Hints:
This protein starts with a strand and ends with a helix. The protein has six helices and 13 strands. A hairpin with a 5-residue loop joins strand 10 and strand 11 (about 180-185). The strands form three sheets. A nine-stranded mixed beta sheet has the order 11-10-9-12-8-1-6-7-13, with helices on both faces. Strands 2-5 form a two-stranded antiparallel sheet. A two-stranded antiparallel sheet has the order 3-4. By secondary structure, it is of the alpha/beta class. It has a single domain, classed as Rossmann fold. The longest helix is centred in the first third of the chain and has 16 residues, at about 40-55. Helix 2 runs antiparallel to helix 5 (about 205-220) and helix 3 crosses helix 4 (about 140-145).
Amino acid sequence: MSLQIVVCGSLVPDPLQTLEPVQTPNGPGLKNETMLPSVLDPWAACALYEAAHLAEQVAGSQVYLVSLGPKAKLQQLMMSVAQKVPFQLVAVDGSASGFTDSALVAEELAKAIEAIPGLDKSKLLLFGGCASASHDAGVTLQLVGERLGIRDLFTGVDELKVNADGSFSVLERMEGGCYQASTCQGAPAVIAWATGSLPEPPNNPRVGMANMRLVMPALMKAKPAPQVGVGGIAYDKTEVPAQKRDTRVVKDLSTDEIAKEIVEWINQ
């Protein structure tokens, strides 16, 4: 049975940039946010690569990338992402700030997914990251699944294997470096990926050209989502975490003495 794999993922500021929070007329944001170079969220990228790999294994499967962000920045991002793996873009023009309300974002993503032509929820696997590099609420994908009526949720997934009968098994990360092995009868299901096991695919200009034929029309048809923002969340203060370094060079201390000093320093 073929699958319809929908990956939720958007842009985040390049982690190599210095991010400085500031107050804007619309609430908290980042200084020069529109000028910051962006990348596809790392966890969402892992989900996208796993989706493309799964689509290759299950004949007739299709991968969709549903992305909410400023249309102009999405276009820049797709110039690089489109060269990685085949997918169809579903774009929503709205804020991708790290201060957005997850419930509002999930509502817009669910609407965009339900509007996909020919969507069959009985074949739907909803992919995304279990975390985010910009707004690590950890609930957005689950909220999207709830709005789509999908109750089976697996989070922190590193491996997914589909069986011949349509069922699949997953490995979810647990504490202590252990995995929880689960089996699901089949789609629909929500899969929140950790890092998976696949490397980043090399750039493929042929794949990029094929994707861009569909990316540009998708961006032109992107529906605006002006209501996506901080919502009812109130931020009293936003700032970069302060760095503190307190170094002392000593000799001939026992392990217990060192551990005691570290504990005392933390308690201060």
